Write a sequence for this structure.
C-alpha cells in the first residue's frame, strides 16, 4: 500500500526511450473492503481531469465502493491519480446529493416532481420564444457531460430553439487549445499522443503544471526522467512547480509575457538554422510574415520583457533546436493568459518549422482542462458546429441541416457563435432572459464574481440549473434539476489525445435524479421540436441511439467515429479517433504525411486575425492558398492590459491544486482529498512577505480593482511580485451567514482572448496586506506547487491510512497493439 | 500637384480615426473586447500618422481650405448608449475607417505614378492594418446586430 496523498504520482516504473511504459494497476476500495467483497467491476474512465484514465468501478450492494485502473488501457496502463482514486466514487455518494427537482416558490427553492419542474421550464421557454424569439435563450454547459448529451444539446439548441447562444465552461478551460489548432492546422484535432512521452528526447511544458493537473501523465514523464535516457525538460511557469523542479531550464516568465518569449524562441531557431527548410516549403504557408514578426525578439529583448535570463532563453531554444524528437504540451498558463491563441500558435509553429509532427516522439499536445471538453468542442454544444464543421461554409451547414432534417436557415450561422462571456453580457443587458446551466458552476468559476452574482440574480432571468449538488449557482435558480452522474448513466467521452472511452452505468442514481441525456430529450419532447417533415426532431431512446447518430455526423470529418462502436469499446482499451475504414484501429498521431485539414472546402474555420479576432473572409482565405499546408500564424506582442502599478503593485494569477477539481463539487466531498487541501490560501514570495510583515499562515487581504479575498498566506518559491490563488474555493461549505471571501475569481477581470474568447484568469493587478496573525501554517499542500519556501517548517501533507491505495506492478503486458498498428 | 491635398486628408483622417477609436473605447468600456481592440487600433492609427510624416514634409501639407469640400473626416466626440448605440458607434467608425482605407489606395496610386519607393513602402506597411480594422468592425457588428436589432429591450 502507498499513501497516495503523500505520494501523488505513486511508485516509479522507469523505462527507456522506445520501450513501452510498464503496467502498474492502482486500486482503492472503501474502508474494510477487499477484492472478495466486490460484487462486480464496471468499465469506465475517470472524469476528474482531462487525462482520461481507463478504470473499472467496484460495485457492492448497488453502491460504488472503489475504483481500479485498467491495465489494458493505452492512456494510463493501469494507473490512477489521487483525484480518481479517492474522488471519483466518493464524490458521487455524499448525503447532500440532489434527489428531487426544486422550484422557486415565494423566493425559496422547494421540492417538486419532474412534471412540475419541466412544465415550468417549457412554459417559460415557449412564452419567451413567442414574445422575443430564439435569441432570448442561452445554454451554458460543461466539460463534464458525455458525448451523447452534448450532441443532444447541440441539436435541440441549434435546430430546435435555433439560438446561437450556446457555450460551455470549456470556454474557460480549453477554448484556446481548439482555437490554436484551428488557426495553425485548419481544424481542431490533437496532433500528438501521450505515447510521444515514451519516444521523445525533450519535452517542453508551456504554462502546464502537468504534475498537478494530469498526475498520471506526469507519472509517465517521471518514469522517463528516472529511466536510463532521460529527456531534457523545459518548463515555462512563474511558480516553482514540481515540473519546474525537474526541469533543465525553468523560464519563470513575468505573467502576461508569453508571446514575447515565444517570438524570441522562434527567432533563435531561425538564426541558428534549426529549421527544416524543405518541410517549411512543402507543408506551410506564411513563413515570411513569421520571420519578420519575430526578428526584433533577441534573447536580450525577451529577457527585458519577460524577466528571465537571456542565456536561459538561448538554452531552451538550443534544446528545442537540437533534440531529435521534441514533445510540447500547453495548458492554462498559456490559455488563460494575455494573447492566448497567438502564444499557443507559436508552440505549433516551433514544431512546424522543424517538421516535428506526426512521428514518434514529435508531437504537440494542446491540452484540455476537463475530461469531456473535447466532446463539447466536437459536438458543438459550445457554439462550434457539430463535427468540426465551418459555420462560414454554407455546404457544411447544409450537411447538418440534412442530418437533422431541418431547413438550413433554422441553424444559426450568420455570425460566430456566441461565447460564454458575451452570453453573460447579453443577460446583463436584458436581451437573454432564459439560461440553462448544466454541470457547471459559474458563480465560482467565472471571472469577476461580484458581477456574475449580479447577473445570475437578475429577477428577469429564468435560470435552470442541472447538477449533482446544490452548487453556488443552483442557489440562484428558478428550477433545479437533479442529474445522474458518472457511474449512474452510460455514455462515451474523449480525452486530450482523442482516445474515446465508454463509461457504463454501474449503479442507480439517487432518488429522482435522471441522466442529463434523458433530461434534454424530455425537454425536446415537451417543446415538440419538429423536423421539416413534421416528425419529432429527436427520436432517440437512449445513449447508444445518440452515439450512432453522432457517428453519422462525423463521417468524413477529422473526428471520424464511424469505426468506434460501443461494442468495440467494451472490454479493451479506449480507441483514438479518427477510426474508420482507412484507420480501422484508430490513429495515434495526426499529420504524419504533412497534409493538414486546411483545404477551404474542408477546414473548420477560415481563421481569425490573432490581434483583433476579425474574421478572415472565405475569399481572403482562399487567396492564401493553404490547400493542405499548415499556416504559420504570427502576431506582435502587446503588453497586458492591467499591469501592476503604484496602487496595485503585484501580478495576480490563479490555478489548480492537485487534490481539488473545479469548484470541489466532488473532490471537496472526498475526505482524503479535502483534508489535504481543505480551504483557500494565497502564495506569495519570501521578499513580498517580508515587505508586508507576514509570516507563514498569517491572514492577508488581497485586493484588486474588482474585489478582495481574505485568506492565509503560504510563503513559497513563487516569482517575486507574483501572487497565486487556487480557484477551487467557493462558498457551498462555508460556515456562518457571512463567510470570508475566498474565491479567487472575486479579483479576476472580465477580459478575453480575441480569438479563442477564453477569459484571462492569469493577469490582474493586486495589492496585499496582512490583517491578522495566523493560527498555524496555511492550509496549502506541501507536496506540489504550493510547497513552502526552502527552510520553512511546515508539516508535510499526508493521507495516513485512509490515503493508502494498492499498486500492483507488472500485472499484465503493457498495451501496445495500437502503437504497432500505427507504425506498420 | 494635388497630392498634398490627399496627404493632408489622410493625415487628418488617421488622427480623427485614432481619436474616434479612443472615444468609442471609453464610451463602451463595459464591452471589454470593444475597449481593448479599439485601444489597440487607435495605436495603429497613431503609427500611421507618424509613418506619413516624412511624405508630408517632402510634399508639403495642404491647408484645410484646399480640400475638396465634400470630404469630411471628423470623428464622433461622444458615444451612444445601449446595444443599438454600440452598433451605431461601430458603424461610424466603419465609415471613417473606410475613408482612410480608400484614401490609402489613392495615395498608393500616386506613389506608383511618382515612382516614390519610400511612400509606396509606407502605404504597404499601413494599408493592411486599415483593412484589418474594417474587417474587425464588420465582424463585431455582424455579431452584435441580430441581438441589438431583434432581442434587445
Amino acid at each position: 500500500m502507498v499513501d497516495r496523498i503523500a505520494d501523488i504520482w505513486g511508485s516509479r516504473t522507469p523505462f527507456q526511450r522506445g520501450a513501452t511504459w510498464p503496467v502498474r494497476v492502482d486500486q482503492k476500495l472503501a474502508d474494510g473492503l477487499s477484492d472478495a467483497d466486490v460484487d462486480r467491476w464496471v468499465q469506465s474512465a475517470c472524469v476528474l481531469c482531462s487525462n482520461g484514465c481507463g478504470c473499472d468501478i467496484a460495485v457492492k450492494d448497488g453502491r460504488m465502493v472503489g475504483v481500479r485502473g485498467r491495465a489494458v488501457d493505452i492512456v494510463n496502463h493501469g494507473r490512477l491519480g489521487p483525484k480518481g482514486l479517492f474522488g471519483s466514487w466518493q464524490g458521487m455518494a455524499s448525503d447532500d446529493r440532489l434527489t428531487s427537482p426544486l422550484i422557486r416558490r415565494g423566493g425559496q427553492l422547494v421540492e417538486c416532481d419532474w412534471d412540475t419542474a419541466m412544465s415550468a421550464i417549457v412554459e417559460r421557454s415557449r412564452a419567451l420564444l413567442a414574445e422575443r424569439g430564439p435569441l432570448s435563450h442561452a445554454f451554458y454547459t460543461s466539460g463534464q457531460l458525455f458525448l451523447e448529451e452534448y450532441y443532444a444539446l447541440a441539436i435541440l439548441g441549434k435546430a430546435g430553439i435555433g439560438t446561437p447562444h450556446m457555450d460551455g465552461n470549456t470556454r474557460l478551460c480549453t477554448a484556446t487549445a481548439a482555437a490554436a489548432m484551428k488557426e495553425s492546422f485548419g481544424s481542431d484535432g490533437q496532433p500528438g499522443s501521450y505515447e510521444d512521452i515514451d519516444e521523445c528526447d525533450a519535452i517542453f511544458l508551456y504554462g502546464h503544471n502537468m504534475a498537478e493537473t494530469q498526475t498520471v501523465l506526469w507519472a509517465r514523464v517521471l518514469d522517463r526522467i528516472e529511466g536510463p535516457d532521460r529527456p531534457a525538460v523545459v518548463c515555462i511557469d512563474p511558480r516553482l512547480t514540481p515540473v519546474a523542479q525537474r526541469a533543465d531550464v525553468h523560464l519563470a516568465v513575468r505573467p502576461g509575457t508569453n508571446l514575447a518569449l515565444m517570438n524570441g524562441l522562434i527567432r533563435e531557431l531561425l538564426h541558428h538554422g534549426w529549421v527544416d527548410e524543405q518541410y517549411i516549403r512543402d507543408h506551410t504557408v506564411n513563413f515570411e510574415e513569421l520571420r519578420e514578426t519575430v526578428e526584433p525578439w533577441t534573447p536580450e529583448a525577451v529577457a527585458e520583457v519577460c524577466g528571465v535570463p537571456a542565456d536561459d532563453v538561448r538554452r531552451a531554444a538550443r534544446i528545442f533546436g537540437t533534440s531529435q524528437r521534441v514533445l510540447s504540451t500547453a495548458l492554462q498558463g498559456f490559455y488563460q493568459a494575455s494573447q492566448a491563441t497567438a502564444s499557443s500558435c507559436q508552440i505549433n509553429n516551433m514544431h512546424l518549422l522543424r517538421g516535428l509532427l506526426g512521428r514518434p516522439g514529435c508531437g504537440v499536445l494542446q491540452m484540455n482542462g476537463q475530461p469531456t471538453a473535447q466532446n463539447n468542442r466536437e459536438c458543438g454544444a459550445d457554439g462550434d458546429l457539430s463535427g468540426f464543421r465551418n459555420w462560414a461554409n454554407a455546404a457544411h451547414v447544409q450537411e447538418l441541416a440534412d442530418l437533422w432534417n431541418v431547413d438550413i436557415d433554422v441553424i444559426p450561422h450568420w455570425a460566430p457563435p456566441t461565447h460564454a462571456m458575451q452570453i453573460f453580457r447579453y443577460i446583463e443587458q436584458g436581451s437573454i432572459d432564459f439560461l440553462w446551466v448544466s454541470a457547471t458552476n459559474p458563480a465560482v468559476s467565472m471571472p469577476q464574481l461580484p458581477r456574475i452574482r449580479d447577473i445570475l440574480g437578475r429577477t428577469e432571468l429564468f435560470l435552470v440549473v442541472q447538477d449533482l449538488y446544490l452548487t453556488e449557482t443552483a442557489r440562484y435558480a428558478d428550477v433545479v434539476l437533479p442529474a445522474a452522474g458518472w457511474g449512474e448513466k452510460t455514455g462515451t467521452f474523449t480525452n486530450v489525445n482523442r482516445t474515446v472511452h465508454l463509461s457504463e452505468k454501474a449503479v442507480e442514481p439517487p432518488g429522482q435524479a435522471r441522466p442529463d441525456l434523458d433530461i434534454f430529450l424530455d425537454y425536446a419532447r415537451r417543446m415538440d421540436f419538429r423536423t421539416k417533415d413534421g416528425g419529432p426532431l429527436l427520436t432517440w431512446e437512449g445513449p447508444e441511439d445518440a452515439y450512432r447518430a453522432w457517428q453519422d455526423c462525423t463521417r468524413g470529418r477529422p473526428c471520424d467515429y464511424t469505426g468506434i462502436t460501443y461494442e468495440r469499446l467494451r472490454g479493451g482499451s479506449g480507441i483514438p479517433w479518427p477510426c474508420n475504414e482507412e484507420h480501422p484501429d484508430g490513429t495515434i498521431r495526426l499529420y504524419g504525411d504533412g497534409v493538414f485539414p486546411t483545404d477551404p472546402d474542408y477546414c473548420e474555420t477560415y481563421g481569425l486575425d490573432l490581434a483583433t479576432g476579425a474574421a478572415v473572409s472565405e475569399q481572403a482565405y482562399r487567396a492564401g492558398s493553404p490547400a493542405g499546408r499548415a499556416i504559420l500564424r504570427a502576431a506582435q506582442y502587446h503588453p497586458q492590459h492591467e499591469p501592476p502599478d503604484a496602487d496595485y503593485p503585484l501580478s495576480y494569477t490563479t490555478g489548480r491544486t492537485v487534490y481539488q477539481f473545479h469548484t470541489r463539487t466532488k473532490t471537496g466531498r472526498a475526505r482524503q482529498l479535502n483534508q489535504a487541501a481543505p480551504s483557500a490560501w494565497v502564495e506569495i514570495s519570501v521578499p513580498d512577505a517580508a515587505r508586508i510583515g507576514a509570516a507563514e499562515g498569517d491572514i492577508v487581504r488581497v485586493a484588486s480593482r474588482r474585489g478582495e479575498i481574505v485568506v492565509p498566506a503560504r510563503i513559497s518559491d513563487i516569482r517575486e511580485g507574483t501572487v497565486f490563488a487556487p480557484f477551487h474555493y467557493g462558498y457551498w461549505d462555508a460556515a456562518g451567514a457571512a463567510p470570508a471571501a475566498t474565491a479567487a475569481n472575486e479579483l479576476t477581470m472580465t477580459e478575453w482572448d480575441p480569438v479563442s474568447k477564453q477569459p484571462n484568469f492569469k493577469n490582474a493587478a493586486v495589492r496585499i496586506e496582512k490583517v491578522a496573525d495566523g493560527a498555524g501554517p496555511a492550509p496549502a499542500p506541501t507536496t506540489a506547487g504550493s510547497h513552502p519556501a526552502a527552510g520553512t517548517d511546515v508539516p508535510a501533507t499526508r493521507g495516513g491510512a485512509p490515503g493508502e491505495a494498492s499498486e500492483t506492478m507488472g500485472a499484465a503486458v503493457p498495451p501496445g497493439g495500437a502503437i504497432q498498428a500505427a507504425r506498420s | 500637384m494635388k497630392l498634398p491635398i490627399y496627404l493632408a486628408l489622410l493625415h487628418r483622417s488617421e488622427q480623427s480615426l485614432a481619436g474616434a477609436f479612443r472615444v468609442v473605447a471609453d464610451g463602451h468600456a463595459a464591452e471589454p473586447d470593444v475597449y481593448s481592440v479599439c485601444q489597440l487600433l487607435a495605436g495603429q492609427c497613431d503609427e500611421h500618422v507618424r509613418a506619413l510624416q516624412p511624405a508630408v514634409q517632402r510634399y508639403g501639407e495642404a491647408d484645410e481650405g484646399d480640400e475638396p469640400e465634400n470630404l469630411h473626416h471628423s470623428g464622433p466626440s461622444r458615444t451612444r448608449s445601449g446595444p443599438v448605440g454600440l452598433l451605431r458607434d461601430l458603424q461610424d467608425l466603419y465609415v471613417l475607417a473606410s475613408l482612410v482605407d480608400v484614401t490609402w489606395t489613392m495615395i498608393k496610386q500616386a506613389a506608383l505614378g511618382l515612382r516614390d519607393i519610400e511612400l509606396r513602402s509606407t502605404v504597404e506597411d499601413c494599408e493592411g492594418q486599415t483593412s484589418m480594422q474594417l474587417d474587425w468592425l464588420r465582424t463585431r457588428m455582424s455579431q452584435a446586430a441580430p441581438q441589438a436589432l431583434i432581442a434587445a429591450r
